[in-house]
């Protein structure tokens, strides 16, 4: 049995002892959530059985009991009883990620898919996924500045590996553009730097007129063009 060591509680409404549960979401509430109970490992009094907790798993880090029950219904798999399937079954892991990307609106009312498709906004995807902690970083709970830097660095690395011509906007996530500017500045140091983003300076916003279009770029990265397709 895998165990996960945690603190007994966390600020902001979460309660690790009940397995990443929102107490407002239960199996009988509307909207609902997986039922959660505290389970203490027999061989570790400070640990909890991982398969009874709803912490982040999979490519999209599916978290919280209300997201697990939604994924369960969509995929036809009982993730309330076996949430570890999101970490141990590759098919379920990716299905849960696609389901979240296409359907979850967080507190924004907009899915990650729609932010990219209709607005060309990477910041919107961050806001939908983790906006309370990262838009702006530290507004809800301190310590997320480096998480934002890490997310930007990975985004830039992916853009480079995929040979895209332009990064999407950061507009919908408050202060994300500021974080980007800071982490590529000459004054940044250590973990506060986005080394993967240096080549993207000046190529971070969608061209005028591309806000509601797919980005269709010509072969010159210095003079991007776009069109509705």
Give short descriptive properties of this protein.
3-stranded antiparallel β-sheet, mainly alpha, disordered N terminus, single chain, 229 residues, disordered C terminus, 7 helices, 2 domains
- The CATH topology of the largest domain corresponds to Endochitinase, domain 2
> What is the terminal-to-terminal distance?
51 Å
Run of helices and strands = EEEHHHHHHH
Indicate the radius of gyration in whole angstroms: 20 Å
Figure out the total of helices.
Answer: 7
Look at the helices and sheets and give the structural class: mainly alpha
- Give the overall pLDDT as a whole number: 77
Describe the structure.
- The chain has 229 residues and is mostly helical.
- The protein has two domains: 3-103, Endochitinase, domain 2, CATH 3.30.20.10; 112-200, no CATH class.
- 33% of the residues lie in helices and 5% in strands.
- The chain is built from seven helices and three strands, in the order E-E-E-H-H-H-H-H-H-H.
- The chain has a three-stranded antiparallel beta sheet, with no helix packed on it.
- Helix 1 crosses helix 3, helix 4 (112-119) packs across helix 5 (122-134) and helix 6 crosses helix 7 (176-183).
- The N and C termini lie far apart (51 Å).
Write the layout of secondary structure elements.
Blueprint lengths: L2 E3 L34 E2 L2 E6 L15 H11 L9 H4 L1 H14 L8 H8 L2 H13 L10 H17 L14 H8 L46
Antiparallel strand pairs: 1-3, 2-3
Helix pairs in contact: 1-3, 4-5, 6-7
